Amino acid sequence: MAVYLQPRVLVVLFLGFSSGLPLALSGSTLLVWMRESGVDLGTIGLFALVGTPYTLKFIWAPLVDALHVPLFTRAFGRRRGWLVFVQLLLIAAVLLLALTDPAKSPLYVAIGALLVATASATQDIVVDAFRVESLPEEEQAAGMASYVAAYRIGMLISTAGVLFLVSAYEGTGLTRTTAWMWGYVTMAAMVLIGTVTALLATEPEQSRRAEAATSGESALKRVIHAALGAFTEFLTRKDALTALAFVVLFKFTDAFSGTMTAPFVIDLGYSRNDYAAIVKGVGLAATLIGGFAGGYLARRYSLVASLWIGAVLQAVSNLAFAWLSTVGVNQWALALAISVENFTGAIGTVIFVAYLSALCQNPLHTATQYALLTALAAVGRTYLSASAGYVAQATGWPAFFTISVAVAAPSLVLLAWLQRRGHFAALGPVKV
């Protein structure tokens, strides 16, 4: 337990919260706002495309690895300078989104959400590199568990927390649109938690060494080395393309159902406060337990065994929502379904982060390589999940969530194939 209290692990924990906070602001929380504003399900489903920056962030990740941010890098260091800079941009983007109105102009909402997603994706690039480079091997499992648990807490704050805030603001006499605006303004202020953490942290030693090793190179040369090194080093590995396909599909089942969870609950007849109370209460507890359970599995079992456990659990958990759709409005049933989803989702994410971390070994291009992998993982959440709203409309909720289980099949086939080829044994333990 003491390992979770190590300063480096605590820093990673708060940065995990900072990474998780903005994702829902351009995702599930925004979808609730849009649904309450009368936007149709088809348009809501298409808003999954707003997550495009998460799939393309590897394109500008070499800039994060190689370039300095004027004033910020000199004052805070290579990784911390980027952290502080991008968090200030994120605050500005969330404030801009707060000024939009889904009922009047979904286009402006999409632009604002796209800016939030871009700033958030850039923050993820830096935080992921900082985490991989700063944690020694003996703290990696604790760091991943803490990061994912805090990440999920950040998402819960920006979902259930925002819904509670909007209701509270409406209770003071504000209109619904104004209440939503102030809810997002409050979330913009909470980004400062990550900024303070970055200011109090120390620059990773591996980052210092990488910076010293390339200090004599031009900016262009550093960018080229970061970009080419990340791609060529990975693609020369055995079964690299199959591994990339597995990265794309591992979280697809979770993302496909998760895209429509909030509209589903609203359509069943639950109030905004019912959903928020359960997500923030029971869902938060399940997330914490699931996050640390995933950390235990990553330490206790081999990487491939942990991946099998996470893959099966997050797929089967969708059946809880299929069952909920037949029950009707029942607080206990909703609490159970949300708990199952949060618990299994946290386990799957911790184990998946362990796998991605094991794939990244060189501090010269940590940010680029990890961004490439997480961008590919976001393909399932963004492009493959964009049709979820239309599938739900065509099949109804029970069949939709049953289909969500079936879409896990390709990832399980790839997992079995990679295991047979010795892919996971070749990676060895998670280390930097």
SSE layout and pairings?
Layout: H1 7-25, H2 28-36, H3 41-46, H4 52-56, H5 61-66, H6 72-76, H7 78-98, H8 106-134, H9 137-171, H10 176-190, H11 192-200, H12 205-213, H13 219-235, H14 240-249, H15 252-258, H16 261-268, H17 272-280, H18 282-300, H19 303-316, H20 319-327, H21 331-359, H22 366-384, H23 388-395, H24 397-406, H25 409-420, H26 423-427
Helix pairs in contact: 1-8, 1-9, 1-11, 2-16, 7-8, 7-10, 7-11, 8-22, 9-10, 9-17, 9-18, 9-21, 14-22, 14-25, 15-22, 15-24, 17-18, 17-21, 18-21, 19-21, 19-25, 20-21, 20-24, 23-24
Subcellular location: Membrane
GO cellular component, one term: membrane
Family: Belongs to the major facilitator superfamily.
| CA-based shape | globular
Look up the CATH topology.
Growth Hormone, Chain: A
The quaternary state of the protein chains shown equals single chain
Strand content: under 5%
User: Which blocks of ≥5 consecutive residues have pLDDT under 50?
Assistant: none
Strand/helix succession: HHHHHHHHHHHHHHHHHHHHHHHHHH
CATH architecture: Up-down Bundle
Please give the largest β-sheet. none
Under CATH at level 1, the class stands as Mainly Alpha
CATH superfamily: MFS general substrate transporter like domains
Q: Report the mean per-residue pLDDT as an integer.
A: 83
Q: What is the end-to-end distance?
A: 22 Å
CA radius of gyration = 21 Å
Helix fraction by DSSP (H/I, runs of at least 4):
over 70%
Tally of domains: 1
Instruction: Find the count of extended strands (DSSP E, 2+ residues).
Output: 0
